[in-house]
Amino acid sequence: xxxxxxxxxxxxxxxxxxxxxxxxxxxxxxxxxxxxxxxxxxxxxxxxxxxxxxxxxxxxxxxxxxxxxxxxxxxxxxxxxxxxxxxxxxxxxxxxxxxxxxxxxxxxxxxxxxxxxxxxxxxxxxxxxxxxxxxxxxxxxxxxxxxxxxxxxxxxxxxxxxxxxxxxxxxxxxxxxxxxxxxxxxxxxxxxxxxxxxxxxxxxxxxxxxxxxxxxxxxxxxxxxxxxxxxxx
Length: 233
Known about the structure:
Blueprint: H1 2-20, E1 38-55, E2 63-65, E3 69-79, E4 84-88, E5 91-100, H2 102-105, E6 113-130, E7 137-150, E8 171-184, E9 189-199, E10 218-232
Antiparallel strand pairs: 1-3, 1-10, 2-5, 3-4, 3-5, 4-6, 5-6, 6-7, 7-8, 8-9, 9-10
Pfam family, one: OMP_b-brl_2
InterPro entries: Beta-barrel_OMP_2
Organism: Arenibacter nanhaiticus
């Protein structure tokens, strides 16, 4: 819901400009924008990270309270042909997830909670597949693979949840899928997009105690997330 409100706010402010792009015979902006072999830009956006847990026994031991984080990064694009581009989008992503029991989220403050503050440096290599340009806009789908460094992973910490430290692996690998629209404005190309991000590898580092309430019953723990990005090229 929060992502929808963010998109709605952006389109309210940009509404008059974007509506002009859908005129029956619009004045074409940036007619040579997609002809260069290499293209550069940057993106700003929002994210919401979650965890997907698979348990050894069929119980829901840990719940996740999600929050809205932010993304910022650069774009390098290699034009392959009229409809496909190869993109490298290194970026910095910040987010916080709180882990706790159902009792904690129902308001029992004496229950333990773990605040997972993550700062990711993300390195995605993506294939962007676009339709034919329609006036001053062009829909596209995008997908590929990425790897990230979690600077707040606590991977090398000798302490674990017995001392209040939740540990994760520093390196995570993902696949990403999304869609968006390129809008050719008068001076730049603006591209809002939505993308799902899904971790491939297990990220959890187990506690020393095999019966730990935080890690003992977890078979795998994998990040999944939603990105709302606004690209300027």
